[in-house]
Amino acid sequence: MMPTSIPDNSTNMSPMEAAIAAIELLEPGEPFTYTAIAHAHGVNRVTLAQRHKHSQVSRKARAIKQQKLDPQQELELVQYIKGLTRRALPPTREMIQNFASQVAKEPIKEYHIDAWHTYNIDKKGFMIGITGRSKQVFSKAI
After folding, report:
1. Can you give the residue ranges of every domain in the chain?
2. What pLDDT is stored for residue 1 in this prediction?
3. C-alpha 63: how far from its chain's center?
4. What is the pLDDT of residues 76-94, one digit of tens each?
């Protein structure tokens, strides 16, 4: 008999993770169909087969693999930016790149910042042109 569900201790699993776990609970050589397990867990059959065969990874796993900094290193970088902003010394992209390279212990050649992470500040007293053409990064919270 083919199990199509897994034990109740998996409440934190996504449906896809639960379906893959159900496949892995099968005895070696025990017949199963991706269609039956996908239907039982409400997931796409093709995606289930690809994930089970490790030919496709989740977006989250792919994003983590592409990151140069781990979450702790990212936190250090954020604290660095906030610290400089508090002292009225907004860091340039080059300063951030140098700090990130030191934290990552490897050179970071390009630091792609998405447009939606860029903020425009227009405050009275902000002296435009004093810093030349360099761009500064500010903490939004401060």
Report:
1. 8-63, 67-142
2. 45
3. 5
4. 999 999 998 889 888 888 8
Question: What number of other Cβ atoms are within 10 A of residue 139's Cβ?
Answer: 16
Torsion of CA 30, 34, 40, 43, to 10 degrees: 150
Spans of the chain, pLDDT less than 50: 1, 3-4, 7-9
CA atoms within 13 A on the CB side of 43: 22
Query: How many C-beta atoms surround the C-beta of residue 100 within 10 A?
Result: 20
Residue 59 to residues 19, 55, 65, 102, 141: CA-CA distances in angstroms?
A: 17, 13, 10, 28, 29
Buried b (16+ CB within 10 A) or exposed e, 29-64: eeeeebeebbebbebeeeebbebbeeeeeeeeeeee
* Amino acid 25: pLDDT: 92
